[in-house]
Design brief:
Layout lengths: L1 H34 L7 H17 L8 H16 L16 H12 L4 H8 L3 H22 L6
Helix pairs in contact: 1-2, 1-3, 1-4, 2-3, 4-6, 5-6
Length: about 150
């Protein structure tokens, strides 16, 4: 019995490691966009992702057909939404001019490609509010790009 449990734990660990190896870079980039930290120096993004991955690992056996990437992304977004007000104001990066909620909507909608309805459900907001936040954020980003003379890609 113990040997079977040990084998199952090793298998679970290997599956999770493979998931992190495949999706970790994109998830870290999303977390870095959320925190508006420079990619080379992003301790808050790393801590945010680590916490989200810990929750995913704890739920790993219960996912059963669910997408672990989606589960981790949801946890990442929820953690950011709960803690964003405690973060220092973003100082650099393209998304630094946005509020934390606008950054969250832009990352989910434009970087991750999550539908408006799904984003609204995830954040507990009406679809119209998500649409308005995204439109305002894009306007701010375009204005910043025009002012800086460059193109913006989230």
């Amino acid at each position: 019995m113990r040997e079977r449990q040990a084998t199952a734990r090793r298998h679970r660990a290997r599956e999770f490691e493979a998931f992190v190896a495949g999706a970790g870079g994109r998830l870290l980039h999303a977390a870095t966009l959320l925190t508006a930290e420079p990619p080379a120096r992003n301790p808050r993004a790393q801590a945010l992702l680590t916490a989200a991955l810990a929750v995913t690992y704890a739920r790993w056996d219960r996912l059963r057909g669910e997408d672990p990437y989606d589960t981790t992304r949801q946890e990442l977004a929820a953690r950011f939404a709960r803690t964003a007000w405690r973060l220092p104001r973003a100082r650099g990066g393209v998304l630094a001019g946005l509020t934390p909620l606008e950054r969250l909507v832009v990352v989910l909608r434009l970087y991750e490609g999550v539908a408006e309805e799904r984003t609204a459900a995830l954040l507990g907001l009406p679809v119209e509010r998500v649409r308005a936040l995204c439109a305002r954020a894009v306007t701010v980003l375009r204005h910043g790009a025009a002012r800086d003379g460059g193109a913006v890609e989230p």
